[in-house]
């Protein structure tokens, strides 16, 4: 029994040794598995960390894309608003350009109208002065007509001229160019107005001519007795009493000039005076002084007359005195001291 127990005990010891060996092997294996599990756990943690980083980076990218998308939408809205503002500014700029052009046109029209107004005012002043001179001349001739007896009305002589020189105040080239520019800028009705003005002046001269035919000389003793020309001689010009004066004004619209012709129709021995003057087109033109040239030669007779015999009258054109002498056979002749014509536009 004891031997059997010993055998069993030995078998149990052997089994126990085997179990211990297995336990040691399992323990070693457990440690290895534990180390492996720790390594895997660490790798898992690292993977989790990497995954979390990737998730955070993806979230950041998504957020950045969202922000960029929002910014893009905002920029698109701003671009649309700026496009509308640009269109509005373009419309305003076009309106301002049209307003500027209209202002330039209005300023040009204003300057043109201002120039025309100044020209018209100067022309009106000139016409008023001419009308005043013509009225004073007509009144003077009426006074002469009223103060002169009717029997001597046919003794009024024609106007004569004894000079051969022409003295004119020439216009400068700058003034001529200015006149040309102003004449180009004037209205088409201005030429008609100038023609009507010239016709009125011609009618006034014709009325003065008819008045001169009915007026006899107004006598008054002069201070010196006779009028002496610059040469110191008294020029006696024969004249047929009772002959009218023919005054003819011929305007040349192309050359912008006018020809004045004064003649006395006395048959073969007719005496005429002709002068051509430039007509300025501006209302503020300077006066042009013209000396009328005698076309035919006049017979000049020198004589000595007592100081009490001459009488003086007034020239019908410019109011200059004309000395008259009585010859021994009671014939009258006139010596004009100066005959000038004021040419006006």
UniProtKB/TrEMBL annotation:
Residues 145-174, 300-312, 326-345 have a biased composition (Polar residues). InterPro entries: Cortactin-Actin_Reg, Cortactin-binding_p2_N. It comes from the Eukaryota. Residues 3-126 form the Cortactin-binding protein-2 N-terminal domain. The keyword Coiled coil applies. Keywords: Coiled coil. The keyword Disulfide bond does not apply. Residues 135-194, 300-345 are annotated as: Disordered. Residues 2-64 form a coiled coil. This is Cortactin-binding protein-2 N-terminal domain-containing protein. It comes from Dissostichus mawsoni (Antarctic cod). The lineage of its organism: Eukaryota, Metazoa, Chordata, Craniata, Vertebrata.
